[in-house]
Amino acid sequence: MASLPQTLGALRQQRGGRSRSVKEEIRDNLVKKLQARERLFPGIIGYEDTVVPQLVNAVLSRHNFILLGLRGQAKSRILRGLIDLLDEQIPIVPGCEIHDDPLDPICGACRARVAKEGDALPIAWLPREARYVEKLATPDVTIADILGDIDPIKAAQAGLNLSDELTMHYGLLPRANRGIFAVNELPDLAGKIQVGLFNILQEGDVQIKGYPIRLKLDVMLVFTANPEDYTARGKIITPLKDRIGSEIRTHYPATRGNAVAITAQEAWTERSGDVRVEIPDYVRDVVEEVAFQARADRKIDKRSGVSQRLPITTLELVVSNAERRALAAGELVVVPRVTDLYAALPSITGKFELEYEGELRGAEQIARDLIRSAVGSVFSGMFDGVDTRTVVEWFDLGGSLPLSDASAADEVLEHTKPVQGLRALAEQTGLKPGAPAPAVASAIDFVLEGLYAQKKISRSDERGYAATNEPQQGRRGPRREEMDEEIRIPSGKKKYYN
Predict the structure, then answer these.
(1) Of 54, 85, 231, 308, which is most buried, counting CB atoms within 10 Å of its CB?
(2) Beta partners for 180?
(3) Is 20 exposed, middle or buried (0-12, 13-18, 19+ CB in 10 A)?
(4) Angle between helical axes of 363-382 and 281-296 (0-180°, round to 10)
């Protein structure tokens, strides 16, 4: 801090009397990062070849831009990531509400101070974090909130006329001067507020209330919106759209691998205490596949989307259910099972909107169907071409397995020991030699649930799990009519594989 100029004279000597605009500053810093091959927007996964290049182009073009995407597509995080492209600190006139530039002040009070104090004017330094202003658009937002208004109290205290420039109360946009102003859910702004943004987007200035003064603000404007709201007639004023430089579309993860990486980054799975959490890859895959299945399901409204928050909160509940089981059984290793997803139904059902057909069926049953389809998809991919007939035949010959979702790992291993070929199939999930009992129990659970998802074995709450009498050849997963007849299995009840 000591090396930074502390007076206007020292600042002029260092910078030659000129400051960069915020868009030039962001562009210059982006160019340096590109030349140094630094990673842009850390924490944003899956956009490297789609969204990020468009963002880079918009910044290099010094554009104001809007991110269009459904909920849970990291739009706000991207906007906040722009802070890293700002300088660490910038000089400002101390006490100025709009962070005026000492080298080129725009407000009357700062111009008066500079004229009076000259090179002796003290300089303050503003950190980059304070230069980002974000506003969630709501119907109750007023033009005074965004731009400003007359402040009669300020006029009375200073003995000024209401027409004096010094009586202005600045809104959020002027207070974002020399920084970034972000508006989330832009279409929710009332039409007259959208009109108030015309000048700042095109001419770069704003006019507050009835003052005959135009403030030449230095600000970068960025927005977010839902694509349906943004393109719907009456939601957004066409001249406003025309003034936004770039329109960038976001998307959900294109691959399961990217989705797993996002959830691993965001979900709280490292629990405190004496227990250690180990999440098998197939459990992570099934959790993500639930979201992929939901986005493709015709009973779920695609216009509202299925947020990436679904797998994040689902995985947290899955781990919590496994933690509860481990604590009750005195196990030191927490290994979630696929069946723990049914304990995460409260997280899943609140993350999607249903079409009419889905409403008839019910959110909980839809969620159960999604889990079953996700298990079947992951199991089929992992065991493609693997012979499972030995296990299926054991059930066909009348074998049964009474298991509970609260069964300890040792209990699961004891009950499944007689099933020929089951342990061998479980080892193909990637079990390491000498794996602890909870990990083996989780792998066995996955195999059983996978066979059930493929209708190679069946289960019910009343009769337990019984061998299916239907032919298995060429079957990759449950038929729709079979899924419609699935019987709910409340938590804690005995399950039987036959």
Answers:
(1) 308
(2) 132, 220
(3) middle
(4) 130
Please answer whether residues 409 and 438 qualify as being in contact, where contact means their C-beta atoms are separated by less than 8 angstroms: yes
pTM: 0.85
Residues 267-323: pLDDT tens digits? 999 988 788 999 999 999 999 999 999 999 999 998 888 999 999 999 999 999 999
- At 46, the amino acid letter reads G
In the block, tokens 């998802």 appear at: 453
pLDDT confidence of 64, banded at 50, 70, 90? very high
Q: Which string of DSSP letters, residue by residue, matches 120-136?
A: G-B-EEEEGGGGEEEEE
pLDDT in tens, 18-45: 789 999 999 999 999 999 999 999 999 9
Contact 294, 310 (CB under 8 A): yes
pLDDT of residue 498: 52
| 269 in Cβ contact with 316 (< 8 Å) | yes
Q: Cα angle at 497 between 495 and 498, to 5 degrees?
A: 135
Residue corresponding to tokens 């009950």: 415
Instruction: Decide: 206 and 149 in contact? Cβ < 8 Å.
Output: no
SS3 state of residue 90: strand
Q: What single-letter amino acid sits at 391?
A: V
CA–CA separation, 106 and 398 (whole Å):
86
Cα–Cα dist 346/352, whole Å: 12
Task: Kindly state the percentage of the chain with pLDDT values over 90.
Answer: 67
Write the burial class of residue 410 (CB in 10 Å: 0-12 exposed, 13-18 middle, 19+ buried). middle
Instruction: Kindly state the DSSP code that residue 267 receives in the 8-state scheme.
Output: S
- Cα angle 77-256-384, degrees, rounded to a multiple of 5: 175
Other CB atoms within a 10 A radius of the CB of residue 141 amount to 18
Is residue 454 within 8 A of residue 488, CB to CB? The reply is no
Per-residue model confidence (pLDDT) at position 471: 46
Taking the C-alpha atoms of residue 419 and residue 425, their distance in angstroms, rounded to an integer, is 11
Query: What are the C-alpha distances in Å from 198 to residues 145, 201, 238, 249, 362?
Result: 16, 5, 11, 22, 46
Q: What is the CB neighbour count within 10 angstroms for residue 466?
A: 17
Domains parsed from the chain with CATH numbers: 8-249 (3.40.50.300), 256-497 (no CATH)
Residue 21's region, left for phi above 0, alpha for psi from -120 to 50, else beta, is: beta
pLDDT of 159 over the 90 cut: no
Q: Do the beta carbons of residue 110 and residue 166 sit within 8 Å? A: no
User: Which tokens in the block code for residue 362?
Assistant: 């019910």
Radius of gyration in angstroms for the set of CA atoms belonging to the chain, rounded to a whole number? 30
